Amino acid sequence: MKGRTLSRHFRESFKSLGRNNWMTLASISAVTVTLLLVGVFAVIMLNLNKVATDLENDVEIRVFIDIIPDQKEAKLAEEQLIDEIHNLPEVAEVVYSSKKDELDKLIKDFGDELSLYEQNNPLHNVLYVKAVDPLQTAQVAEKIATFDNTYDVKYGEGKVEKLFNYIKISRNIGLVLILGLLFTAIFLISNTIRITIIARKDEIEIMKLVGATNSFVRIPFVLEGMWLGILGSIIPMIVVSVVYYNIYIQLAPRLKGELLQILPTTPLLYQVNGLLILLGVFIGVWGSFMSVRKFLKI
Predict the structure, then answer these.
(1) CA-to-CA distance for 231 and 31, rounded, in angstroms?
(2) Rounded to an integer, what distance in angstroms lies between the CA atom of residue 202 and that of residue 14?
(3) What is the mean pLDDT of residues 216-233?
(4) At 13, is the pLDDT very low, low, confident or very high (cuts 50, 70, 90)?
(5) Does 9 have pLDDT greater than 90?
(6) CATH code linked to domain 60-154
(7) Largest CB tally within 10 Å, which of 30, 63, 138, 200?
(8) pLDDT-derived band of residue 171, with 50, 70 and 90 as boundaries?
């Protein structure tokens, strides 16, 4: 295609937006409202997914080491147990915590009354183990329980399985809702654009009757659909960015140090805004292409 022809198509697409201002406004409004819903829902679902991931990653196995009176023998036994656990391919991390550290945690959580046990600490040295895949926590715990010098293994048996099940269900529900919302967005926006093109079917028929090729007729409409998608995505991008930024600066300091965190504005807003503009352009172009096609058969 010649540069002059392409330039003409771009000019015509801009002119069409102005000539059909009411239909253009209706199309942009439909794109704006629908993409705003998509943007808000995308931000919510991405944050819920992060919360679910954080909960999964927080699951750990507590390995209580046998109490051995002889310190030298106890140290060798602990090193051997740590090496055995490290050698498991399913294990991502092993952190050692002495019985003094464990008592300090209890004193911090339950009060200074427990400091009476500092002279005669009855607790065990503990290994905190995390699996590469949190879903394999139970299997890893079962393997560690068979190792020598292991007094007991705890990982929240029963509760962990329920947690993973709830997370799986919530993710599946979220995926279905996102797909449903995207399908609704495509349906609403493409139908609005289709109505805009149907209102101009006489213009298309005249162009065909005077000998215009299909591509010559189609390209200005496709470009027009692209502009509608871009213009309709601007307001949702601004609203989502401003609202989420203000929510983040309010919540992030309060959640600092807590298990549950929300996603930082960067790169989240770049990702969501990129999704919105790509979705707007895709639906605009696709809706225009499919709608004008039926009028080209003259």
Answers:
(1) 8
(2) 19
(3) 83
(4) low
(5) no
(6) 3.30.70.3040
(7) 63
(8) confident
